[in-house]
Amino acid sequence: MNIEGLKVVFSGHGRLRSLVRSGDGVRAVDGIDLVVGEHEIVGVVGESGSGKTTLANSLLRLVPVTEGRIVFRGEDITRKRGRQLRRVRRQLQMVFQDPHSSLDPRMRVASLLNEPYVIHDVPTADRYRVADLLSMVELPARVARLYAHELSGGQARRVGIARALALKPALIVADEPTAGLDVSAASAILNLLQSLRDEHGTAYVIITHALNVVGYLADRISVMYLGRL
After folding, report:
1. Could you say which residues of the chain have pLDDT below 50?
2. CA-to-CA distance for 14 and 56, rounded, in angstroms?
3. How open is the CA angle 214-215-216, to the nearest 5 degrees?
4. How much is the pLDDT for 20?
5. Which value, to the nearest 10 degrees, does the dihedral of the CA atoms of residues 67, 3, 202, 61 take?
6. Cβ proximity of 207 and 46 under 8 Å
């Protein structure tokens, strides 16, 4: 993935009032250039409010891009919509910062892991079995019967990772993948991400404020401050 001159500008104030201001609003992401190679782990670190999560969301087009380009495998995806964007998103997945709030509380884990296949109309022959996805993230098969509120923080994080892996993406953006976990659980998640990269060749963008996380995991590290790298 090549990110070229990426800008995301929000109007108004709110939580982003500490960021760089322009006459047109708040520059949450302010002209970023970044390259993520095949099978590479790139860490993006910075203090709270530096624009890291907005950058993460913009890479998957979860927030609108104001200016610049996002080029994925030679294709400019910056303005894609509808079916074209959905096709690209099969290859670009996200692990969200709050694992519990990103999982539908009305669905069992088995349904959560099958949902991406329904959304993207994936043929049965091309799907992982639920038990296999859980095994990839080192969870027992019995977890498939649980609801999100019955999962520990570490288990919920692993389910989020399994859900991201379901579509066999080329790139996963992980926003604070160890936030809220104790040292043991955090270490296990980092080892898991590393082993999944080695086994499946998935590239990662790791968004975090924890230097020890990227120091252990990342091939390259970028520091973000006031919307800039």
Report:
1. 16, 19-20, 22
2. 19
3. 90
4. 46
5. 0
6. no
